[in-house]
Amino acid sequence: MASLNDLQNRMKSVRDTRKITNAMYLISSAKMRRARRDMEASRPHFYASQAVIGDILRNLPNIVHPCIGDTLEAPRPGKTGYLVITGDKGLAGAYNHNVLKLMGELDKDPAQSVIYTIGEVGLHSARSMGYPVDIEMHYPAQDPNISRARDLSARLMEKYLSGELSEIILVYTSLHKTVTEVTYRRLLPLYRAEFTDFMPPDDHRPPVYLPSPQAVLDTVVPNYLTGFLLDVMVEACCAELDARMIAMQSATENADEMLSVLSLEANRARQEAITQEITEIASGARAQKKKQP
User: Which of 83, 122, 189, 196 falls between 20 and 30 A from 96, CA-CA?
Assistant: First the structure.
């Protein structure tokens, strides 16, 4: 059995670690509440853009936009771009590992793909795995905002329209209430069938688009992509904070269990030390008694 001093030092170390994990849990909880508010605040604009695009496609079925296709057929020839959203740091359980695992399952031919990353973990992991990573389009995962989403969507849209990419796939972790799930969604191209649920009924009065329907569509589509990216970035941030909360809560509970076990061992060691001292005192007293005449 370890000595009493060793057990006390170990208990002090566990207590210090528990303070850190509990503080990280509280910080992640506060950040997650703020991220959820940001996510709920960003979605009305995103849904409004979907409704406008669906309305235009319904009233003008022959309108053409380079980002919108007619069918769900195979994409045009070219490289596939993967936007992988991970965290900037660990201590979040299997959050980063699951995203990178799904990326590896989707990307069967690294030679025909380009990886864009949000999050430091995704950048370093993808480069260490040998994937071609565009370092110029790397963004941090912390504090997602509309400015960052607008810049990223504009640059990805430019690469798609230039023919450099045939399609762009988002790989991230979605958050449904308290359940996280690693998933992927296509950012570009958009398809008319995706906006069917957002088209108004047949009795809807056709609106008037100024200065023209094409100009409105050219403005709304980039805004829709920006809102789409912002929603995904904030949702992934919420999922990361939720995973970190769970990991830190589990670490705190494990620290409590370890402290309980160490406390029992320390009490046992203390009792053995007291018993040993009493035995030594009694033995010394008997020895002194025998020496007396």
Answer: 189
Collect all residues with Cβ–Cβ distance below 8 Å to 282 and sequence separation of at least 6.
none
CA dihedral 274, 280, 283, 285 (to 10 degrees): -90
Residues 252/27, Cβ–Cβ less than 8 Å: no
Residue whose C-alpha is closest to residue 247's, from 34, 25, 36, 89:
25
pLDDT of 88 reads 82
Q: Which amino acid is at 148?
A: R
State the pTM of this model.
0.78
- Give the span between the Cα atoms of 59 and 51, in whole angstroms: 12
Length of the chain: 293
pLDDT digits (tens, 9 = 90+) for 92-132: 778 888 888 888 888 777 778 888 888 888 888 888 887 88
